[in-house]
Recover the amino acids of this structure.
């Protein structure tokens, strides 16, 4: 299941011009999605941005909306 979620998050980022780096976790039971910013930003802003991406992804999944609409 996590494979699909990570792939959906990666696709959503790429559709919106964000180039994430996906790294499989050491345990093999999950993955990390890295997003690098052009300049330094506070950790809290980066964390909130990540949470926002996850919230939007869950909303799209719940509403069964295609990721193509998130432009």
């Amino acid at each position: 299941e996590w494979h699909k979620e990570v792939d959906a998050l990666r696709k959503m980022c790429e559709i919106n011009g964000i180039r994430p780096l996906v790294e499989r976790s050491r345990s093999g039971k999950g993955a990390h999605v890295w997003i690098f910013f052009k300049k330094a930003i506070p950790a809290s802003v980066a964390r909130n941005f990540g949470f926002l991406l996850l919230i939007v992804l869950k909303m799209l999944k719940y509403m069964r909306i295609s990721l193509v609409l998130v432009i």
Summary: Residues 46 and 52 are 10 Å apart (CA to CA). The radius of gyration is 13 Å.
